[in-house]
Design a protein that fits this description.
Layout: H1 2-8, H2 11-15, E1 29-32, E2 44-47, H3 49-59, H4 63-82, H5 93-98, H6 101-117
Antiparallel strand pairs: 1-2
Length: 121
């Protein structure tokens, strides 16, 4: 009985909200900046291997390049957060967390896509 339920469970549907065209959670990986002033923690990138493997299989793509794109996306979050802008200003971690999702994700997607199309991955 459990086996039948598992066969009919749509994990992709469960991970994505079909009512909108965006993903609401960190599904393939995450970038977690160190909080402002925190000395006992570090910024961290996590790759969610199980879900990345599932997506690679669904896409019919090798695991390594899919993982590289996810890593490029998460590194882009780190670089856009920690790097300096043209005025020499850096995004504070708390401001980064509160920033509009479309901006934060748009920058990461742009750089991940550039890494893919440039042949770096």
């Amino acid at each position: 009985m459990l086996h039948e339920e598992f066969q009919h469970y749509d994990l992709i549907h469960a991970l994505f909200d079909k009512r909108v065209e965006t993903v609401h959670d960190d599904i393939l990986g995450s970038y977690n900046p160190r909080p402002n002033g925190a000395r006992d923690s570090e910024s961290r990138i996590e790759i969610f291997w199980g879900v990345v493997g599932l997506f690679a299989q669904v896409l019919g793509a090798p695991l390594e390049p899919v993982t590289a794109v996810v890593l490029a996306h998460e590194l882009a979050h780190a670089y856009t957060h920690a790097g300096l802008d043209i005025d020499g200003v850096r995004w504070e971690a708390n401001d980064f967390r509160r920033s509009e999702l479309a901006i934060v994700e748009g920058l990461a997607q742009y750089y991940a896509e550039r890494a893919w199309t440039s042949g770096m991955i």
